[in-house]
Design brief:
It contains eleven helices and 19 strands. The protein has 415 residues and is an alpha+beta fold.
């Protein structure tokens, strides 16, 4: 051990000079103004904005595992706003703008890196879809354009444009603001910001029931006892059906595993994000050199984070078609998250038919990129007891009135 580090071995945690990211409350209080179920990025961001923007600090964030241990820590960190509907574009573009200043706002290095996002087209139909998306994006003031093979060759020289001769690339949809960020740092930053403003963060605290009185939520049961709550927000992504069942609320959310993996770190060479909707895969390189790769959601509904050999076998085959030189790289680990999917591939956000119960779910494959705007708009909704303008189209009641959003076409990979 270097001598300059030895001094820290003799210090108490409180004497190290740096503040704790999260305090460890001794126990749950008997009541809170707001209880947030879920200690991922969305839940912590909502707590942060409730405290910062509205002065609501008597808040408890209840996480059944550890901070960021759910989908926040199981995604592939891509941020973009080239969506297909006016509602989706406005929402995700605001999130991208919030991300740009988030490191300064939270006083933590999020390793936010603008890369440029290529959605490859391997067929005439894929090119038509790319042109459709580009024109829609331009109409909504999003930087997005269709580019040809030569542009791709100049910007991504390490990509085999013929993909081994089996599915040659014809062009791509290029979204210059596409970026990546450190996902766990986003959760830590929001968690620390909320904690420093008085919010309590309770890890290893599972919600086992929600108590209602005359269709009004009054508190939550946990493995550490019952607490009264003025308002309760479900922000648990893949666990959404389990929470909504506690209040007898039906939603159209279904859960599908979404798998990903990373290689061993290698010298940085890839400074873009590459997506192929036709091949159902996407890849970027992390700041420490790992190739971060993912594919489409699994075809069968399953409440599980198990991973499979079938996923790795299919994904690596496609990767080697696009990047033949990666054949000698070792895979280091793989994992899965639980995607909470809705029929129109847009989230469910805001108030519900149960008084004092709010929901933030149905994120599919794009929950991480929505973290800042989700927290900000849900905090506004809870504080004012009315939906923020940006999330009005995402209310649960749209499935009763058939005013669906229809965001499926904006997916980077097939669902």
């Amino acid at each position: 051990m270097p001598y300059r580090l030895l001094k820290y071995a003799f210090k108490k945690p409180d004497d190290l000079g740096d503040p704790h990211f999260f305090g460890k409350p001794e126990k749950l209080k008997s009541s809170y103004d707001v209880v947030i179920i879920g200690g991922g990025g969305h839940g912590l961001a909502c707590a942060y904005y409730l405290a910062r923007d509205f002065g609501i600090t008597n808040v408890a964030v209840l996480e059944q595992g550890y901070i960021g241990g759910g989908n926040t820590g199981r995604n592939t960190t891509i941020v973009r706003s080239n969506y297909l509907t006016p509602e989706g574009v406005a929402f995700y573009d605001e999130s991208l703008k919030l991300y740009l200043d988030l490191s300064d706002d939270l006083d933590i290095n999020l390793m936010y890196s603008t890369r440029g996002h290529f959605t490859l087209a391997h067929s005439d139909s894929a090119m038509r879809t790319s042109r459709w998306r580009a024109e829609t994006n331009k109409h909504l003031n999003i930087e997005s354009e269709v580019v040809d093979r030569q542009f791709i060759a100049n910007e991504v020289p390490y990509l085999d444009l013929d993909c081994g001769g089996t599915h040659p690339i014809m062009g791509a949809l290029y979204h210059a603001p596409g970026a990546v960020a450190r996902h766990d740092a986003v959760a830590w930053g929001y968690g620390r910001g909320a904690y420093m403003r008085g919010v309590e963060i309770h890890q290893r605290t599972q919600v086992t029931g929600i108590k209602t009185n005359d269709s009004k939520v009054v508190g939550v049961e946990t493995n550490k006892g019952f607490v009264e709550a003025g308002k309760v927000i479900s922000m648990v992504a893949g666990s959404s059906p389990r929470i909504t069942n506690m209040v007898g609320m039906d939603t159209p959310i279904e859960i599908f595993p979404l798998q990903a993996c990373v290689t061993e770190p290698v010298k940085p060479f890839m400074d873009t994000i590459i997506v192929s909707g036709s091949l159902h895969c996407y890849v970027s390189q992390s700041s420490r050199g790992e190739m971060v790769m993912g594919a489409s959601a699994d075809p069968q509904e399953l409440h599980s984070t198990r991973s499979s050999f079938d996923f790795v076998e299919g994904l690596t085959d496609q990767m080697m078609d696009m990047f033949p030189f990666v054949g000698g790289m070792n895979l280091m680990r793989q994992w899965a998250g639980m995607c909470d999917m809705t029929p129109d591939f847009a989230p469910i956000m805001g108030k519900t038919g149960i008084d004092n119960f709010y929901i933030d779910g149905g994120w599919g494959t794009w929950g991480f990129k929505a973290t800042p705007v989700s927290g900000k708009t849900m905090a506004y909704t809870v504080a004012n007891d009315k939906p923020h303008d940006l999330i009005k189209p995402f209310g649960l009641d749209r499935f009763d009135t058939y005013k669906l959003v229809g965001e499926k076409g904006a997916a980077s990979v097939g669902h």
